[in-house]
Specification:
Layout (H helix, E strand, L loop, with lengths): L25 H6 L19 H6 L10 H54 L8 H7 L2 H5 L2 E5 L6 E5 L4
Antiparallel strand pairs: 1-2
């Protein structure tokens, strides 16, 4: 239905006069429903539309953006996206570097522990290992270590005798 009055400038505009009696005001009479409503709501005398469609469907109310403004908004959007992507990449890079540094520190620590333990380690004579172990007390037995290769870092390390 074409709008006959001035364009609607705000969402909650209303028609003046008594809307239950359309003949009371000629502006209401122009908007009045002809015949019966589909919904049988007799009190609705004018077409009920969303306020947003009333505002934007009219050319006077819906002025389109200029090309310059559209391009400016598009450029701003691309700048924001690129900045966001940069920030995400920086975060990933920082996390990767942190992980590398942690693994390197762990590898060096294991190497140092192994070298220090090797200096003070006592080699058991394989021929007399049974006698030696029987002569040891509990504390000395707890100190027995075996060497193995760490699968993660690739470094030889000392672990407990019964470690898996």
């Amino acid at each position: 239905m074409p709008r006959l009055d001035n364009p609607i400038t705000e969402p909650n505009c209303h028609l003046t006069g008594d809307i239950l009696n359309p003949s009371s005001d000629p502006s209401i009479q122009r908007h009045a429903q002809k015949g019966r409503n589909t919904s049988n709501r007799l009190w609705k005398v004018r077409p009920q539309k969303r306020a947003s469609s009333l505002i934007t469907s009219n050319r006077a109310n819906a002025r389109s953006k200029t090309w310059a403004r559209k391009t400016e908004e598009r450029q701003l959007k691309t700048c924001v996206k690129s900045a966001q992507a940069e920030m995400i990449a920086e975060r990933r890079e920082a996390a990767r570097e942190k992980k590398e540094r942690r693994l390197e520190n762990e590898r060096r620590r294991m190497e140092n522990e192994y070298n220090n333990a090797k200096k003070s380690a006592q080699q058991l004579n394989l021929k007399k290992v049974g006698q030696t172990m029987k002569a040891m007390n509990k504390k000395q037995l707890r100190m027995i270590k075996k060497s193995r290769m760490n699968s993660k870092t690739g470094v030889v390390e000392f672990v407990g005798a019964y470690a898996k």
